[in-house]
Protein: Blue (Type 1) copper domain protein
Amino acid sequence: MKKSILISLFAAAAFPLAALAAGTHAGGHDMPASHGNMSMSEHSAMFGQPGDPAKVTRTIDVVMNDNMRFEPSTIDVKEGETVRFMVRNAGKTRHEMVLGSLDELKEHAKKMRANPGMVHSEPNQVNLKPGQRGTMVWQFTQPGKVDFACTEPGHLEAGMAGQVEVAH
Structure:
């Protein structure tokens, strides 16, 4: 009898530890922010910051599809403008829109390939299942070009990218 109690106690103690070691699995890996977080990178601070929804000056509709394209793929904004991106996944596979430099996006795509199904949430991105809609509010603080892409495995490589032109 004592042996079965000890085994039960050991199993009860080991289960939470095994669950922690396995990570969170809901169809993918929920990685910590350090996995390639571009919203906190030096570059993203150079081109903008999460926007205040109360200060949105306009809304831009963006559609992602299984042709590995964004519609539109080129977006014009003004320096200082706060934009609400209304993003819709019109495809049958998961897609995301991530703002960053092309180098950051390529590095992030590499990490996504190494961790298929990874799901994350940062202010500079929106990740959507098929048929879902989502929003991202961003203030563009510097003139120049800001890239965006889908970093789901193979999508950026297939040409799923675009640019925001921030006019002075």
About this structure: The first helix runs from residue 2 to 22.
